[in-house]
Amino acid sequence: MSTLQEKLTQLQQKGSQDIKAASDLKQLNDIRVKLLGKKGPITEVLRGMRDLTKEERPAVGSFANKVRDALAEVVDQKKAELEQAKIEQQLATETIDVTLPGDQPKIGAHHVISQVIEQLEDTFLGMGFKVVYGYEVEEEKYNFEMLNMPKDHPARDMQDTFYITKDVLMRTHMSPDEARELEKHDFSQGPLKMVSPGRVYRRDTDDATHSHQFFQMEGQYIGKNVTMADLKGTLEFAIRQIFGEEREIRFRPSYFPFTEPSVEVDISCFKCNGKGCDVCKHTGWIEVLGAGMTHPNVLKAAGVDPEIYGGFAFGLGIDRFAMLKYGIDDIRNFYQNDVRFLTQFEKRG
Ligand code: DAH
Predict the structure, then answer these.
(1) Degrees (nearest 5) of the Cα angle 202, 321, 230?
(2) How far apart are the CA of 318 and the centre of ligand 1, in A?
(3) Does ligand 1 come within 6 angstroms of the Cβ of 22?
(4) Same domain for 196 and 284?
(5) Same domain assignment for residues 162 and 270
(6) Which domain holds residue 175?
(7) Which residues are listed for Mg(2+) binding in this entry (predicted)?
(8) Same-domain check for residues 89 and 118
(9) Has residue 10 got a pLDDT over 70?
(10) Average pLDDT, whole number, for the chain?
């Protein structure tokens, strides 16, 4: 036996002993690296083969490989042994008390405003309207100009505005999406029917019924031969979906720059059924939204010919809908994120 082979035999004996003596997985790994790694003694022996004759090399080489494989095998066995021991130890020491009460995860609630938005979206989708989402930071052009509210128009004062620059602002209503969609729509493909829900901003002092930010939904239907009867039928259907089948609606004349004629829409009181109560301030009717027949100037500004196309638009306050529907008397509740408030409206199951 050559001296190299002797050296290898010794390495194998010593190595096996060390491996078997390892007390944990970390130590075992250190031993493995030291013994079998690139800087280890076996690699060194293999390097020393340079000095052997051609005839000696194959025998020593294959012997070295055998030693390495044998040691690797011992490492694997030891590893399995240590892992098993670890599991057994865990089983012996860690017990689970299945009778202890569990941790109840805190589940958030689907916001009541989101619920009303979804109900409205479903209702209008069902009538063939599409849902679009515009921009909270909007151009003055879409928020006012294209809606028949040129600069210095008194109606701009009705909506006290947060300006970002002279031409850019926080949208004060959802009507800019009307102008945007009108401008984009290809009427050769059919009428435009859309709703757009979203957050709007106004410089207002917050109190029980005012908030500097709230939610609206805009809707419009522009095509050929769209009439005020279509407006009434559409709103009546939507309102019955939200406030119950028995609801009646009525129109009262009003003014908005973007519609002519314009109307204010009331629903018959759902609490007293029209008899008069505190919710309807003893009138039997509750004002819920503004609407009208789209002004020809709005169509023209978007490049739509008012001689051929026309239709209606409406804008409703989502917060107001939610307050009425659920009997909430302070709009600030929606924005304070108090879970005790928010979880009351969550449908469970
Ligand atoms: N943009 C109006 C507002 O914020 C709401 C509105 C009223 C929208 C009448 C309309 C409409 O499209 O026809 O007060």
Answers:
(1) 100
(2) 13
(3) no
(4) yes
(5) yes
(6) 112-345
(7) 260
(8) no
(9) yes
(10) 91
Task: Say if CB 110 and CB 346 are below 8 A apart.
Answer: yes
Tokens of 305: 């010919």
Both structure tokens of 8 = 């290898």
What six digits make up the tokens of 16? 């096996």
- Is 292 near ligand 1, meaning CB less than 6 Å away? yes
Give the position, in ligand 1's atom list, of the atom nearest the Cα of 158: 14
Q: How many helices (H) and strands (E) does the chain have?
A: 11, 9
Q: 292 and 215, same structural domain?
A: yes
Between CA 26 and CA 21 the distance in angstroms is: 12
Whether residue 67 sits in one domain with residue 174: no
Q: How many CA atoms lie within 13 A of 293 on its CB side?
A: 16
Place of tokens 């060390």: 18
The answer to whether residues 137 and 268 belong to one domain is yes
Task: Kindly state whether residues 83 and 131 are assigned to the same domain.
Answer: no
In a domain, 105, yes or no: no
- Residues 6 or more apart from 199 whose CB is under 8 A from it? 136, 213, 214, 215
Q: Known binder of ligand: residue 88?
A: no
Q: What is the pLDDT of residues 266-275, one digit of tens each?
A: 999 988 888 8
Residue 348's pLDDT is what? 55
Q: What pLDDT is attached to residue 155?
A: 75
Long-range CB contact pairs, 98-106, < 8 A, 24+: none
Residue 213 falls inside a structural domain = yes
User: Ligand 1 pocket, 291 CB below 6 A?
Assistant: yes
**Residue 145 and residue 253 in one domain:** yes
Sequence-distant (≥ 6) Cβ neighbours of residue 170 within 8 angstroms:
136, 137, 138, 161, 162, 164, 200, 201
- For residue 98, the CA-to-ligand 1 centroid distance in Å is 59
Residue 9 covered by a domain? yes
DSSP-assigned letter for residue 346: P
Q: Which atom of ligand 1 is nearest to the CA of 172?
A: 4
Which amino acid, one-letter code, is at 243? F
Q: What is the pTM of this model?
A: 0.71
